[in-house]
């Protein structure tokens, strides 16, 4: 059984359990997870529709030839001069659905695509993919884990290249260039590179710029690349020459928060309770107002995907889920400090994908 056949089988099992009659996906991560590819997405409606027994593509004729090389799923084609309505009606008829069914819509598809589907299914009840494709995507299989692990180790090497580039007078952008060059050397595509030095580190999503590193700076480096369709993500800390005042205390607090989250993350535990375990450490140390973001996010085909570890998320964690643990403290005008690892949840707790310690790197000595 191919990967696509296996995932379609799992999806149909979940559809039966949730009373779902039709799942409709647009070009994007959900479709890519199911098929291993997705057609070009633009303003022309292109939809993969999965019923209880058969699946069909609503396919723009312009993209049909190229897409046919990737899949043998049946197409209902439509051309620009005809429009998609008749082809959509034909596809729904072949799948065997109409009227007041339960349809699950890809929450990332264009709104006009979603309205097109609902307009063709009067009286349909609709939901998003959280209990179907989304639930399946959260639990990684061995092949997905192997690719995520490979990318994490590439990320380690790119981080080491960035740390080696740190010295007084070098700009954030020059450090980022060294990191991106290492991703390329490792056969990966750079996905994002955040280098926040000194007071810039107090902005969690700082736009890496021309600021020159200075002795006494703390530097946040948050990077990720992508190889074979899967990304990486990791944050490590460095100081230039020596740490700024108060840095050692804050680093120790954030490390304790990481460890508290690692201890709390177990199958059956709510995501919000893992967030709370880390947040409470920081709050009790007097820095609660300076931890300004969620504890973590899932990682898979996308850099940010479910599960999200927030103060309000009631998602119950399970074996095979992959997510970040990344508490931080951000002191305006002084420095920021974030420690981030990607983990896969095993029966006895999280397994860290990176092999790089979270200790502070001292550069420019």
Rg of Cα set: 23 Å
Query: CA-to-CA gap between the ends?
Result: 57 Å
| Strands side by side in the biggest sheet | 4-3-2-1-5-6
Low-confidence stretches: none
CATH class of the largest domain: Alpha Beta
Q: Give the topology string: H per helix, E per strand.
A: HEHEEHEHEHEHHHEEEEHHEEEEEEEE
Number of helices: 10
- Residue-averaged pLDDT: 97
Helix content: 25-40%
Could you say which structural class the secondary elements and strand pairing correspond to? Answer: alpha+beta
User: Biggest sheet, in brief?
Assistant: 6 strands, mixed
- Tell how many strands the DSSP assignment holds: 18
**In the CATH hierarchy, what is the architecture of the largest domain at level 2?**
Alpha-Beta Complex
Percentage of β-strand residues = 15-25%
Description of the molecule:
The protein has 365 residues and is of the alpha+beta class. It folds into 2 domains: 3-136, Creatine Amidinohydrolase, Chain A, domain 1, CATH 3.40.350.10; 142-363, Creatine Amidinohydrolase. The chain has 10 helices and 18 strands. It has helices spanning 3-18, 29-35, 61-68, 85-95, 111-120, 133-138, 142-164, 172-185, 247-264, 271-284; strands at 22-25, 47-51, 55-60, 75-78, 102-105, 125-127, 189-197, 218-227, 230-231, 234-240, 296-298, 305-309, 322-325, 328-331, 335-338, 341-346, 349-352, 361-363. The strands form 5 sheets. Strands 4-3-2-1-5-6 form a 6-stranded mixed β-sheet. Strands 7, 8, 9, 10 and 18 form a 5-stranded mixed β-sheet that branches. A 3-stranded antiparallel β-sheet has the order 13-16-17, covered by helices on one side. Strand 11 and strand 12 (305-309) form a beta hairpin. The model has no long low-confidence stretch (mean pLDDT 97). Residues 7-98 form the Creatinase N-terminal domain. Residues 147-345 form the Peptidase M24 domain.
């Amino acid at each position: 059984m191919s990967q696509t056949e296996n995932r379609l089988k799992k999806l149909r099992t979940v559809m039966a359990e949730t009373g779902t009659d039709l799942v409709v996906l647009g070009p994007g991560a959900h479709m890519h997870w199911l098929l291993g590819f997705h057609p070009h997405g633009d303003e022309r409606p292109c939809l993969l529709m999965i019923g209880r027994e058969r699946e069909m593509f609503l396919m723009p004729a312009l993209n049909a030839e190229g897409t046919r090389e990737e899949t043998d799923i049946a197409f209902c084609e439509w051309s620009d001069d005809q429009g998609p309505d008749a082809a959509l009606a034909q596809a729904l008829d072949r799948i065997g659905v109409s009227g007041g069914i339960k349809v699950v819509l890809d929450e990332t598809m264009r709104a006009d695509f979603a309205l097109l589907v609902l307009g063709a299914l009067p009286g349909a009840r609709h939901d998003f993919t959280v209990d179907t494709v989304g639930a399946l995507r959260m639990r990684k299989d061995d092949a997905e884990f192997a690719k995520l692990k490979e990318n994490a180790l590439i990320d380690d090497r790119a981080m080491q290249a960035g740390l080696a580039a740190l010295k007084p007078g070098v700009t954030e952008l020059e450090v980022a260039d060294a990191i991106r060059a290492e991703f390329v050397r490792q056969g990966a595509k750079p996905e994002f590179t955040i280098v926040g030095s000194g007071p810039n580190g107090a902005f969690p999503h700082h736009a890496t710029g021309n600021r020159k590193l200075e002795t006494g700076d703390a530097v946040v480096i948050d990077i990720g690349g992508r190889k074979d369709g899967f990304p990486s993500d990791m944050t490590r800390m460095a100081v230039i020459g020596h740490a700024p005042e108060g840095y050692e205390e804050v680093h120790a607090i954030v490390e304790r928060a990481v460890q508290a989250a690692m201890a709390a993350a177990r199958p059956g535990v709510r995501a919000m309770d893992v967030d709370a375990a880390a947040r409470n450490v920081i709050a009790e140390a007097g820095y609660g107002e300076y931890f300004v973001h969620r504890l973590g996010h899932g990682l898979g085909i996308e850099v940010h995907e479910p599960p999200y570890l927030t103060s309000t998320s009631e998602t119950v964690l399970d074996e095979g889920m992959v997510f970040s643990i990344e508490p931080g403290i951000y002191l305006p005008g002084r420095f920021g400090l974030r420690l981030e690892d990607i983990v896969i949840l095993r029966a006895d707790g999280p397994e860290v994908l990176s092999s790089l310690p979270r200790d502070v790197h001292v550069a420019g000595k």
